[in-house]
UniProtKB/TrEMBL annotation, chain A:
<dbReference type="Pfam" id="PF01891">
    <property type="entry name" value="CbiM"/>
</dbReference>
<keyword id="KW-0812">Transmembrane</keyword>
<keyword id="KW-1133">Transmembrane helix</keyword>
<feature type="transmembrane region" description="Helical">
    <location>
        <begin position="97"/>
        <end position="118"/>
    </location>
</feature>
<dbReference type="InterPro" id="IPR002751">
    <property type="entry name" value="CbiM/NikMN"/>
</dbReference>
<keyword id="KW-0472">Membrane</keyword>
<feature type="transmembrane region" description="Helical">
    <location>
        <begin position="130"/>
        <end position="155"/>
    </location>
</feature>
<protein>
    <submittedName>
        <fullName>Cobalt/nickel transport system permease protein</fullName>
    </submittedName>
</protein>
<keyword id="KW-0813">Transport</keyword>
Automatic annotation (TrEMBL), chain B:
<feature type="transmembrane region" description="Helical">
    <location>
        <begin position="241"/>
        <end position="261"/>
    </location>
</feature>
<dbReference type="InterPro" id="IPR012809">
    <property type="entry name" value="ECF_CbiQ"/>
</dbReference>
<dbReference type="GO" id="GO:0006824">
    <property type="term" value="P:cobalt ion transport"/>
</dbReference>
<feature type="transmembrane region" description="Helical">
    <location>
        <begin position="83"/>
        <end position="107"/>
    </location>
</feature>
<keyword id="KW-1003">Cell membrane</keyword>
<dbReference type="Pfam" id="PF02361">
    <property type="entry name" value="CbiQ"/>
</dbReference>
<protein>
    <submittedName>
        <fullName>Cobalt/nickel transport system permease protein</fullName>
    </submittedName>
</protein>
<dbReference type="InterPro" id="IPR051611">
    <property type="entry name" value="ECF_transporter_component"/>
</dbReference>
<keyword id="KW-0472">Membrane</keyword>
Length: 205, 264
């Protein structure tokens, strides 16, 4: 879900930009220079994952995977997803420039929230319970993203209220798909390489 | 550095040398980024059709000057439009005002229609200008220019690493996808498909982490101490001054039109 330039009211755009700058500062603080290669490669992975289309009935949806990003990266998901959105805006024309802050907040905010809430539970768990927590994280992140999108539209003006509701209900299947995928991804990663969730320590001996 | 996202046909060179086809591409990258940002802010603030029309015209001019493949770029912008289409289509029915027609008992208003057109014009003008001014840049140059504009070093390095590995990981994805295909996987709406895609993403993450371990090892081998020097020097020349002056005048023209027409 990308919001474009010109759709939102100024207070929403400015608040989004301010909160995103705060999130970026906090995310970068948790990301010393030595961990940049890991974060960069994972950020590229999430960029590529967002290009994957998964069939849903007669149509297909593209993945967002912000829940998984939060589980793997924690606070660093904020700058990582920002970079992805910046590249998408500049090179693909998806989204916009003045709304970059809002869009980052809508995607990365839930990612970090989910990371803070559920990541500790995934870290120590066996593959199966970790997968269940991850599925909750994946679904919750998309649910929060759509709620945030709906809020941004609703605060902008009453005329967007029906659109806001539509956004929320249209994303119900996406929530389900992302929950399933995040669960499966974590189940596999937990079996193959459990240190993926260890605060980057796997990459930094 | 490798060309970024392979789906892009840009004048990218394998060496990362600054070889640009158009005069616009030779303008200082910092200036182009600032101009795109200023343009976006001014256009978003406009509400009247006259300045917005001028803004779209300026964007189209920039697009032709940038020598981006026009058709492909337009297709991209059309893709963006398709995302917001339903919000725009709903607007005439949700904004109260003078009715145009009624559809299944819902009245469409002129005010809503104007608002929808206004949003579409703004979004398209800004995205076109952004692509014309910034997307013609080598991604590495974008990183260096952002660094020169005082964007935190960590963020710039994160950007450069992401750009460097997008293509590598896309190939990784295509390999994994081919492997599923070779084993007879046909995607559908069922649990098995979703689990397969989930495993695919999980495997990509695992391989990425292992790759990043090798990258960090190789970097340490070459003396990486946690800092990467950015060497690019950018020069501000006479043609840059000319471009900035012209661009600022255009922005003032758009602003003046907004004040003149939008006041009533």
């Amino acid at each position: 879900m990308h919001i474009v330039d010109g759709a939102l009211s100024n207070p929403v755009v400015i608040a989004g930009a301010a909160l995103t700058i705060g999130g970026l500062a906090q995310g970068l603080r948790k990301l010393p220079m030595e961990k940049i290669p890991v974060a960069g490669v994972l950020s590229a992975t999430f960029f590529v994952a967002s290009l994957i289309h998964v069939p849903v009935g007669p149509s297909s949806v593209h993945l967002i995977m912000n829940g998984l990003a939060g589980l793997v990266l924690g606070w660093a998901a904020f700058p990582a997803l920002f970079v992805g959105l910046l590249l998408q805006a500049v090179f693909f024309g998806f989204g916009g420039l003045t709304v970059l802050g809002v869009n980052t907040l809508l995607i990365a905010g839930p990612s970090v929230l989910v990371g803070l809430l559920i990541r500790p539970r995934v870290q120590g768990a066996a593959p199966r319970p970790a997968a269940i927590w991850a599925a909750i994280a994946g679904g919750l992140a998309i649910a929060l993203t759509t709620v945030f999108v709906a809020l941004a539209l609703a605060i902008t003006g009453d005329e967007f209220l029906p659109a806001a509701k539509l956004v929320f209900f249209a994303h119900a299947p996406v929530m389900f798909v992302e929950a399933m995928l995040t669960g499966a991804a974590v189940y596999l990663a937990k079996q193959v390489k459990p240190e993926l969730f260890d605060d980057f320590q796997g990459a930094l001996q | 550095m490798t060309p970024v996202i392979s789906t892009l046909d840009k004048p990218l060179t394998a060496t990362g040398a600054n070889r640009q086809l158009s005069w616009l591409g030779r303008i200082d990258p910092r200036i182009r980024i600032l101009c795109a940002a200023a343009f976006a802010v001014v256009v978003v603030a406009c509400e009247d059709f006259a300045p917005l029309g001028l803004a779209v015209a300026i964007s189209l001019f920039l697009l032709s000057a940038s020598r981006l493949p026009a058709r492909r770029t337009m297709m991209r912008v059309a893709t963006m439009d398709s995302f917001i289409l339903f919000i725009l289509l709903l607007l005439p029915f949700t904004v109260p005002g003078e009715p145009i027609f009624t559809l299944w008992g819902f009245a469409a208003s002129w005010e809503g229609l104007w608002q929808a057109i206004e949003i579409a014009l703004k979004a398209n003008a800004i995205v076109l200008a952004l692509m014309a001014l910034v997307s013609t840049m080598e991604p590495v140059t974008l990183g260096h220019a952002l660094h020169a504009l005082k964007v935190p070093e960590g963020l710039v390095h994160l950007l450069m690493f992401t750009v460097r590995y997008i293509d590598v990981l896309r190939e990784e994805y295509l390999r994994l996808k081919q492997a599923t295909k070779a084993r007879g996987f046909r995607p559908g709406t069922n649990r098995h498909s979703y689990r397969t895609y989930g495993y695919l993403v999980g495997m990509m993450l695992v391989r990425s982490l292992e790759r990043s371990e090798r990258i960090l090892g190789a970097m340490k081998c070459r003396g990486f101490t946690g800092r990467i020097p950015l060497l690019d020097r950018m020069a501000f020349g006479p043609s840059d001054v000319l471009f900035v002056t012209g661009f600022v005048l255009v922005l003032f023209a758009i602003g003046a039109m907004e004040l003149a027409y939008g006041a009533y």
